[in-house]
Amino acid sequence: MDAKKQDLTNSIGLLILRAGIGSYMVTHGWQKLQMLLNNQAEMMGTIIGIPPPFSLILPMLAEFVCAILVIIGLGTRFAAAPIAFTMLVAAFVGHANDPLTMGEAFELFMTGKTKMPMSKQPALMFLFPFLALIFTGAGKLSLDGLVNWPKVFARMRQKKAAK
Questions:
Q1: How is 61-128 classified by DSSP, letter by letter?
Q2: How far apart are CA 143 and CA 129, in angstroms?
Q3: Using CA atoms, how far apart are residues 100 and 39, in angstroms rounded to an integer?
Q4: Which residues make beta-bridge pairs with 50?
Q5: Distance between CA atoms of 57 and 79, rounded to whole angstroms?
Q6: End-to-end CA distance of the chain
Q7: Is 137 helix (H, G, I), strand (E, B) or coil?
Q8: CA 2, CA 60: separation in Å to the nearest integer?
Q9: 70, 75, 77, 83: CA torsion to nearest 10
Q10: Model pTM above 0.90
């Protein structure tokens, strides 16, 4: 496969990844936005020393706003980072005492050892695609792919220097 065709197929793959995983993440952020609008920030509790409502606002911004940016491919590498960090915190702080997999969680739930089948697995399954996007970027089929950011920043520096 020639380089142009390979670049296009890679960009299509990244578009599918961004749209798919970003859309699922937006639903989690939307739930947190609804909690915030319904004055339920206290339900989140204090996480890594961050008290409510900030312990709800920060993940909501990552999971909702940053996920939308990832979907459209705008500042993808930067937008994926807060999501990845949030998923690390969710997996290893929020679900610190929960099992690694949903299978283990359901086993505990079905035997009455826990009230809810909670595990680290969902957070980790979100973590890896967003971590990959930090390294790959959005691809050409994105707003990032349409904008030549180095030229934009160079023009901004020139205007600032001219003043």
A1: IIIIIIHHHHHHTSSHHHHHHHHHHHHHHIIIIITTTS-SSHHHHHHHHHTTS-SS---SHHHHHHHH
A2: 19
A3: 31
A4: 47
A5: 16
A6: 49
A7: coil
A8: 42
A9: -50
A10: no
Q: What is the pLDDT along the chain (163 residues), one digit of tens a residue?
A: 788 888 899 999 999 999 999 999 999 999 999 999 999 999 888 999 999 999 999 999 999 999 999 999 999 999 999 999 999 999 999 999 999 999 999 999 999 999 999 999 999 999 999 999 999 999 999 999 998 777 888 888 988 888 7
139: alpha, beta or left, given left = phi > 0 and alpha = psi -120 to 50?
Answer: left
Residue found by looking up tokens 């312990």 in the block: 55
Say how far residue 81 (Cα) sits from the centre of its chain. Answer: 7
Q: How many residues does the chain have?
A: 163
**Residue 121's pLDDT is what?**
96
Coil, strand or helix at 50: strand
Q: Which helix (H) or strand (E) holds 41?
A: none
Residue bearing tokens 């949903």: 102
Cβ atoms 85, 104 nearer than 8 A: no
Q: What is the pLDDT of residue 154?
A: 86
CB of 35 closer than 8 Å to CB of 45: no
